[in-house]
Amino acid sequence: MNDATLRKIDLNLLLAFSVLMQERNVSRAAERLLLGQPGLSAALRRLREALDDELFVRVGRGLQPTPRALAIAPAIEDALSGIERAIRPPAAFDPASWKGEFRIGLCDNLESAFFGPLAARLRELAPGARLVGVAFHKRDAARLLDEGAYDFSVSIHDEPASWHIRDPLFDQCSISIYDPKQLRLKTPLTLEDFTRADHVGVSFEGSNGSTNVDIALARLGHSRQVVATVPRFSALPTALRAMPAIATIPESIARCMAQLHGLTVSVPPIPLPAEPVTMLYRRIDRADGRSVWFRRLFIDVASAALEASGCRMGISRAAA
Q1: Which among 38, 68, 74 has a CA at the least distance from the CA of 52?
Q2: By C-alpha distance, which of 100, 140, 141, 107 is closest to 122?
Q3: Average confidence score pLDDT of the chain
Q4: pLDDT tens digits, residue range 192-243?
Q5: How far apart are CA 266 and CA 249, in angstroms?
Q6: Which residues of 175-204 are buried (b: 16+ CB within 10 A; e: fewer)?
Q7: Residue 313 needs a FRET pair 20 to 30 A away by CA distance; which of 30, 65, 119, 265 works?
C-alpha cells in the first residue's frame, strides 16, 4: 500500500469498517455511527477503492466479510483501541496511593510561614510522598522551573515566559517587629519611635541600598539608622532578642516569629506598598492531575496558615 492510498483512509473509514465487522448489517451499523445508510455506503465505497477489495459481500439480509477484511480486522481493532486509550480522560489523581516527590520552590520568608504546615498536611493525605523544599532567588525562578528543580515556585515573580503561568496568591504587606524586653515601646509605633530606634535589615546579597522603608521615610523628610543586615530571615529573631532594634519584614513571617519567639508586631507608621506574591508553574502542567492537586493543596494550606497567624491579607479569590 503506497502513501497515496494511506492518505485516502481516515479514522472515520476505519471506524465504519470496525462497526460493520461487528454488526454485519448496514442499517444497524449506520444507526450506531449516527449516520444515514447513504453516508455509510459512501464510506464503505471509499474504503473498498482504497484497499482494492470488496471487503463485505451481501449474503441474504446481512454482510459477509471477505478474507481480506478478516485479515486486517484485528490490526484495525488494535489501532482503534490504542487511539481510544490515548484520548480517554486520565484517571483522577489519588494522593493516598501515590509514591514519589513533591517539590516546591519557596523564598526564605515564605518557607518559614508555609513549609511546615504544607509538609504536615501532605503527610496526612499522601503518606507515601515526600516534600522537598528548594531555596532560590527570584531571578532564578524561571530557569529552575524549566530545569525541573520544583513543581512550582511561590515568590514575587517577574513577568512570565509564554510557556509559564503566573497565578496571583496574595498581596504581601510589611509590618514591624521587635523584642519588647529590649524596646519598651507601645503599639502601634509612632513615627518618632520608629525613626529614633535602631533597625535591622534583611538582604540576601548583603546590600545596604535604599529599601521601600527608606524611600517612604524620605518622602516624609525622615530617615532611619540600619545598624545590622542579616542575609536570611531565620537570623532575625536572635538579632532582635540581643539588641534594641526594629525589623520591618513581610507580615507572614513576622507573625510566625512573634508567636515562636515572643516578639511584638506593629503596623509601621509609614505607608508601605504591598508586593504581589504569585505561583509560577509550567503551562504543560496546567491540567496534569498530580500537579493540579499539589497546587490546590498549597493554596488551601497557605490560606489556613495566613488566617491562623492573624495576617491581614488572604489568598486571592482567583487562586482559591
Answers
A1: 68
A2: 100
A3: 89
A4: 999 999 999 998 776 666 789 999 999 999 999 999 999 889 899 999 999 9
A5: 11
A6: bbbbbeebbebeeebeeebbbebbbbbbee
A7: 119
Of 131, 160, 155, 127, residue with least CA distance to 143: 160
Listed residue (107, 207, 90) closest to 150, CA to CA: 107
Q: Report pLDDT for 83.
A: 84
Residue type at position 289 = G
Q: Give the pLDDT confidence of 37-82 residue by residue, as tens digits.
A: 888 888 888 888 888 899 999 888 888 999 999 999 999 898 888 8
87: CB partners within 8 A, 6+ apart? none
Residue among 196, 174, 197 at smallest CA distance from 248: 174
Which amino acid appears at position 47 of this protein? L
The C-alpha cell that represents 210 in the structure block: 535604599
Distances (CA, A) of 187 to 193, 266, 280: 10, 6, 37
Per DSSP bridges, beta strands 56-59 and 198-202 are unpaired
For residues 183 and 240, the answer to whether their CB atoms sit within 8 Å is no
